[in-house]
Every structure is written in structure tokens, then in C-alpha cells.
Design a protein that fits this description.
489 residues, mainly alpha, 4 strands
Length: 489
């Protein structure tokens, strides 16, 4: 009987592990092979060249420091709107507006972030011209941190907001009844249950910043970064795939630290028997403070991206500001462009559907108690690996691994690449939700004669439906705007 009941889990685990073996490990093996083989012989000269190459150490250090700063700042800033939505009495409609605008940057590829910052806060930017002076120098370290924070803020917010929604708020009341002060109540009922999610948020933000090329391409200035070194090696005037492969392997170092850190923090996860619906204590000062802070954050985001929606309607930004519909008309009258748009919708739709199903299946095995929970480290490891592999590296790996196969230049290879590339964040969101639910549901259902599959469909899925929709949206939106990986395919 037990064997029969675990069959769906076996199928899910076997299918996903085969999928990632073929479309993650095999392509990455091609990259590692290229970094240690030269003319059929094993060599480490590409790594030794990296060590002796002028600037590589500085680039790695700069990437670590800047990405760490942006990861910490992003997590702190993302906490503000997440707390405002889950722990204040702000109007529900206003909360929806907050959530919408905080995730707005996800709609644009990172390569546009740099241009948006230049058009808004550069010497001739919109905000600079309105104020009459430049607020900040957007080139160099400051501009990179601002760009990285805006880029990773939606993902960090989604992780924290999702986890907060599954925290049982009744413990706030219990803590108060026990005589705890405001600070202790905040720590015990909010921060303590979020320890793992806060760490994951930092790691996600750090890794996305560490591996991004789009923002540095516009804002790095004279600051050397490891991602730009990789780009120059792979796509420079003299491409060197062997050296690029060696840089790619070096860039995976943070994944080792991430795996160890998250594995250690997982023991601090807190489960609740149920999520209580309570009325939060009235506190106008708290509500006004968090509403104001969130509004300021949103205004900054809008000030950066507003210019993107203005430029298409001007004759020649910023020199000739006459209003025109010409560029919009040209876009919609271009049949080739419309065909590309339809292809993007098709690929993104299937990527989102397949990605959400795969994420949900692996998260169930990883997060829910049962005979297969011991295998949960496999999806966790896959998540961390996919999170730390730059999209550009993954695209090159696919190009090298599947060249000459039936998958080359097809929709399936694009969909598979999107699913693998974007797997990490939705997986962590869904897993975080599942970990907050009552751990005994499956056991109770089994004692009542219900199958694991029926328990998942009838009990667990309705309780994480909103998170699954967020995961679907994440896959869809990012598949629409991603450039780094699929540009090679």
C-alpha cells in the first residue's frame, strides 16, 4: 500500500531529476569540460591565466562587495512594503497598488535599467532637468547599487510578502498577553519566523546582482566586474570560450556558500497548525509611517521608469520634445515585430505553465513531511545551482551542448532554457509557503484513507493557490523580458 501511495512522488522526483540532469548538468558539464580541456588534453592553464590576469581579482572583489551591499539594501527595503501589506491596517486597495508598483520593474529587461537611470538621473535626465541639479552620480558604484536594488527588489519583495502571508498573526496577540515589549514581539512574531526567508532574499539579490551584465553595461563606468569579464571573454572582439568557461566556473563559488548557509538556516523554519485570521491592533502612527515609506519607494521606482513610457511619444528625446505617435504606429504596423511578439507570448505561456508545475512538484517533495522528504535536498541543490548560473553562461552551455540536435533553433529549447534559468525564485516562494502549512495534513489524510495526490489537489493546493499564481506570473513575465540566456538559442 505504501508503495502505491508514493508512486506519484517517485514519478515527480524521477522526471524532474532527469530533466535537470539533461538540461542543467549536461550543459554545465560542457562548460566545465571546455575550461579544463585544450586540444583534447587536460589543462588548468585557463585557470592559471585567470589568476595572473590583471584585474580579475579586483573584478571579483568589486562584484562581491557591490552585490553584498545591494543584497542587504534590497532585503531591508523589500521588508518595508511586505510589512505594510501584512502587518498594518492600510486600506486593502492601497495595499494592492503597493504590491503592483513594487513588482513593476519585473516587466523590463535589466539592460533597460541603465538607460532608464541615465534618462532620468543623468546630466540631461528628466528628474535632473526638473530639479535643475543632479541628485546622484549614477555612474560607478552608486549607480550599480541603485540599479541592482531596483532589479532585485521585486523578487525580494515577493519572497518576503509571500512568507509573511503564511505567518500566524495570532502570536502577536499571545506575545502581548505574555507581557512582551514592542521590540521583543516584533522579533519573536515577525523576524524569527522570517530568518530563513530573509537569508534567501539576500542570497537571491546577491546572486542576481553578481551575475547580471545588463546594468553594468550602462552604469559600470570604470568599475571592473566579474560579469563584464565573462561577457568580454564570451562575446568580445576575440571570443575565448575556454577562458569564459573558466570564469563561469569561478562565478559558481557563491553557490557553495549559499547551499551551506540555507541548509543551516532551514532548521529555523517554523510551521503553523493553521493560519488564523485576526484583526490587527489599530496604530495610526505605524500605518502612516509604513504607508509613507512604501509610497516614497514607489515614487523612486516611478521616477526611474516613467521616462521609458515618455520617450516613445517624443520626436527626439531629450532634444526635440514634440509629441508624436509615429513610433507607436510603426511598431503596430510592423508585421515582423508582431510575429515576434506572438512568439514571445507562446514561449512565455508554455514556460510559465511547465515551470509552475515543475516548481510545485519539487517543492512538495522538499517541503512536506513524508517518506520522500529526505530527497528534498536535491531540488534545493538544483535551485541554488540555477540561481547562481548566469543566464549568459547557461545560453552558451545550451548552444555548446545541443548544437546539431533536433532541439536546436526550436521553441522547446527556449521553453526548457527559461524553466531551468528561472526555476530558483518561484521554487523558493512555493517551498516557503508549503513549509508554513500544517505538517500533519498528509498524515491525517492518509489515516482517513485519502491518497497523497488527492490530499495535494483537495487540501494543499487551495491553500497555496495565490503563491502558485505568483510563480506563474514570475515565469511568464521574466520569460517575456529575458535576454541573457535565449539570445544564443
Amino acid at each position: 500500500m505504501n508503495k502505491q501511495k508514493t508512486t506519484p512522488q517517485k514519478i515527480i522526483l524521477a522526471f524532474t531529476m532527469i530533466l535537470f540532469s539533461v538540461f542543467l548538468l549536461f550543459p554545465m558539464f560542457s562548460i566545465v569540460k571546455a575550461s579544463v580541456f585544450d586540444d583534447g588534453a587536460v589543462t588548468f592553464k585557463f585557470y592559471s591565466d585567470l589568476i595572473t590576469e590583471n584585474g580579475i581579482g579586483t573584478a571579483f572583489k568589486n562584484s562581491v562587495l557591490i552585490s553584498s551591499a545591494s543584497g542587504l539594501l534590497t532585503t531591508l527595503l523589500a521588508f518595508i512594503p511586505a510589512y505594510a501589506i501584512n502587518y498594518t491596517n492600510i486600506n486593502k486597495k492601497v495595499k494592492k497598488v503597493f504590491a503592483t508598483f513594487i513588482t513593476l520593474p519585473m516587466l523590463l529587461p535589466t539592460i533597460t535599467y541603465g538607460f532608464a537611470l541615465m534618462y532620468s538621473y543623468g546630466n540631461a535626465g528628466l528628474v535632473t532637468r526638473i530639479l535643475g541639479f543632479r541628485i546622484v552620480d549614477i555612474y560607478g558604484v552608486t549607480g550599480l547599487i541603485i540599479g541592482y536594488v531596483i532589479y532585485t527588489l521585486p523578487i525580494s519583495f515577493m519572497l518576503l510578502n509571500n512568507s509573511m502571508s503564511y505567518i500566524d498573526k495570532k502570536f502577536v496577540i499571545v506575545s502581548r498577553l505574555l507581557g512582551d515589549g514592542t521590540i521583543k514581539t516584533f522579533y519573536v512574531t515577525v523576524l524569527r519566523p522570517l530568518v530563513s526567508t530573509l537569508a534567501i532574499s539576500f542570497i537571491q539579490s546577491f546572486t542576481l546582482s553578481f551575475t547580471d551584465y545588463g546594468i553594468p553595461a550602462a552604469l559600470a563606468g570604470n568599475v571592473e566586474l566579474i560579469s563584464t569579464k565573462l561577457y568580454n571573454a564570451m562575446l568580445g572582439s576575440l571570443p575565448n570560450f575556454n577562458s569564459g568557461s573558466a570564469i563561469s566556473v569561478v562565478m559558481l563559488i557563491p553557490s557553495v556558500v549559499s547551499i551551506l548557509l540555507i541548509g543551516w538556516l532551514n532548521k529555523y523554519n517554523i510551521r503553523y497548525n493553521k493560519i488564523s485570521k485576526i484583526e490587527l491592533k489599530k496604530n495610526k502612527i505605524r500605518d502612516v509611517v509604513f504607508a509613507s515609506l512604501t509610497s516614497v519607494l514607489i515614487l523612486i521606482i516611478i521616477s526611474v521608469f516613467a521616462v521609458i513610457f515618455m520617450v516613445p511619444f517624443t520626436t527626439q528625446w531629450p532634444y526635440y520634445m514634440r509629441f508624436t505617435w509615429d513610433f507607436i504606429i510603426k511598431v503596430f504596423s510592423d508585421s515582423l515585430l508582431m510575429s515576434v511578439y506572438r512568439n514571445s507570448l507562446l514561449v512565455s505561456g508554455f514556460s510559465a505553465l511547465a515551470g509552475t508545475l515543475i516548481v510545485y512538484g519539487t517543492a512538495l517533495i522538499s517541503a512536506r513531511k513524508g517518506s520522500f522528504q529526505k530527497w528534498g535536498k536535491l531540488p534545493d541543490t538544483v535551485s541554488l545551482i540555477t540561481n547562481t548560473i548566469p543566464g549568459m553562461v547557461l545560453g552558451v552551455a545550451y548552444m555548446m551542448a545541443f548544437k546539431g540536435t533536433a532541439l536546436q533553433n526550436t521553441f522547446p529549447i527556449l521553453i526548457l532554457c527559461n524553466v531551468v534559468h528561472l526555476y530558483s525564485s518561484p521554487y523558493l516562494m512555493v517551498k516557503g509557503s508549503l513549509e508554513k502549512l500544517n505538517a500533519s495534513w498528509e498524515i491525517t489524510a492518509r489515516l482517513m484513507g485519502d491518497s497523497w495526490m488527492n490530499t495535494v489537489l483537495r487540501i494543499i493546493t487551495p491553500n497555496v493557490w495565490s503563491t502558485l499564481l505568483e510563480a506563474f506570473s514570475y515565469f511568464f513575465v521574466n520569460s517575456m523580458v529575458t535576454v541573457s540566456a535565449i539570445i544564443f538559442l
